[in-house]
């Protein structure tokens, strides 16, 4: 949907207002993060900052490589802004990830390429991200098992993540194999969502017919991937490096506060933090990740006060920094819609 300039300005203002409201609501945590960072060794904190920025660039490169596999050529700078903006919108206007997806779809319409391909790119990114994380999670669980620290909560959260990744992978597989089967699956999901929401909305929330049209457009892009599967190697490698960078950020935080920790503790801590970042009832795990990481580190014999300090500092880099960057990119993207791109590469 294309918005005229006054409507676009109004939407920007509303979302920025939501951002201000969100920060005010979390102001005590922001203060705690700032005060905590002041106590750390600035050299390691600076390294953590550099690694976090490199992580953001890595995320943008992941999206760019998936777009190219689908026949869409965007610059890295543009993908950086899109990824940061999508993350920002998902946090301040939570809608089960649909707000962030809308950022990519709106950009596709401005640039005049298939919104369905942009949506599939987002789904592929999530699938690769979850798959890369499952490798890290497996290592983390092994560490917890060896130390007899694995809890039912972590097992349940891991199973939920595995189910989500498996369902997403199955849908993507259907899209690559059969347009009809993919269309039926999307229409079924739309029907299921409508049945759940109809008692509250009194009308259909999603169009089953549009789901089939979406499947038709999306399958064209996925067939292009199927004919050149080697194009997916780079997104897979970037997904793995993404998790390595997050683990290195946590390691720098340990060093900044002079808290001794083994490699196993850092890997398990990183796995716990990202697991509850994903499997959380709050946007980006606000209020959940901090507690889960603190308790997880405490169970691995990190002193409670030190564990709380590390959790707050780590969230400062991995949550609050991307959120602030996303606020800036959101304002810029909304103010200056980009020019159109050439049509995507045909099959």
Please give a quick description of this structure.
The protein has 347 residues and is mainly alpha-helical. The protein has helices at 5-25, 27-38, 42-69, 76-92, 98-111, 115-146, 152-177, 179-201, 208-227, 233-256, 263-278, 289-299, 304-335.
Question: Tags for this entry?
Answer:
single chain, 347 residues, mainly alpha, 80% helix
What is the overall pLDDT average?
A: 83
Main β-sheet description: none
The helix-and-strand class reads: mainly alpha
Number of helices: 13
Total of domains: 1
> How much helical structure, as a percent, in the residues?
over 70%
First-residue to last-residue Cα separation: 26 Å
What's the gyration radius in Å?
Answer: 21 Å
Query: Overall 3D geometry?
Result: globular
**Spans of 5+ residues with little confidence (pLDDT < 50)?**
343-347
β content, as a range?
Answer: under 5%
By DSSP, the count of extended strands is: 0
**Strand/helix succession:** HHHHHHHHHHHHH
Sequence-ordered SSE layout with sheet pairings:
Blueprint: H1 5-25, H2 27-38, H3 42-69, H4 76-92, H5 98-111, H6 115-146, H7 152-177, H8 179-201, H9 208-227, H10 233-256, H11 263-278, H12 289-299, H13 304-335
Structural overview:
It is a single chain. The chain has 347 residues and is mostly helical. The protein has one domain (5-335). The protein has 13 helices and no strands. The protein has helices at residues 5-25, 27-38, 42-69, 76-92, 98-111, 115-146, 152-177, 179-201, 208-227, 233-256, 263-278, 289-299, 304-335. α3 packs across α4, α6 (115-146) packs across α9 (208-227) and α6 crosses α10. The longest helix has 32 residues, at 115-146. The two termini are 26 Å apart.
């Amino acid at each position: 949907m294309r918005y005229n300039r006054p409507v676009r300005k109004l939407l920007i203002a509303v979302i920025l207002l939501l951002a201000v409201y969100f920060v005010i609501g979390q102001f005590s945590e922001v203060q705690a993060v700032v005060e905590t960072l002041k106590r750390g060794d600035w050299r390691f904190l600076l390294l953590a900052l550099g690694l976090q920025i490199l992580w953001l660039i890595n995320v943008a490169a992941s999206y760019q490589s998936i777009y190219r596999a689908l026949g869409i050529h965007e610059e890295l700078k543009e993908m950086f802004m899109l990824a940061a903006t999508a993350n920002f919108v998902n946090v301040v206007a939570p809608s089960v990830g649909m707000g962030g997806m809308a950022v990519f779809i709106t950009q596709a319409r401005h640039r005049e390429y298939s919104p369905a391909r942009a949506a599939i790119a987002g789904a592929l990114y999530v699938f690769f991200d979850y798959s890369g994380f499952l490798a890290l999670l497996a290592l983390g669980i092994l560490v917890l098992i060896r130390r007899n620290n694995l809890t039912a909560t972590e097992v349940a959260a891991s199973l939920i993540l595995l189910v989500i990744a498996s369902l997403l992978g199955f849908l993507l597989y259907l899209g690559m194999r059969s347009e009809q089967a993919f269309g039926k699956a999307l229409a079924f999901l739309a029907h299921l969502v409508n049945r759940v929401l109809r008692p509250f909305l009194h009308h259909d929330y999603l169009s089953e017919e549009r789901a089939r049209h979406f499947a038709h457009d999306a399958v064209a892009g996925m067939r292009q991937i199927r004919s050149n599967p080697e194009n997916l190697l780079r997104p897979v490698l970037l997904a793995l490096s993404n998790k390595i960078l997050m683990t290195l950020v946590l390691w720098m935080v340990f060093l900044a506060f002079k808290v001794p920790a083994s490699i196993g503790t850092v890997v398990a801590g990183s796995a716990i933090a990202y697991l509850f970042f994903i499997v959380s009832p709050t946007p980006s795990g606000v209020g959940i990740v901090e507690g889960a990481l603190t308790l997880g580190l405490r169970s691995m014999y990190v002193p409670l006060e030190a564990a709380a300090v590390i959790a707050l500092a780590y969230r400062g880099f991995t949550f609050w920094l991307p959120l602030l960057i996303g606020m800036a990119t959101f304002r810029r993207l909304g103010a200056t819609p980009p020019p159109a791109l050439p049509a995507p590469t045909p099959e």
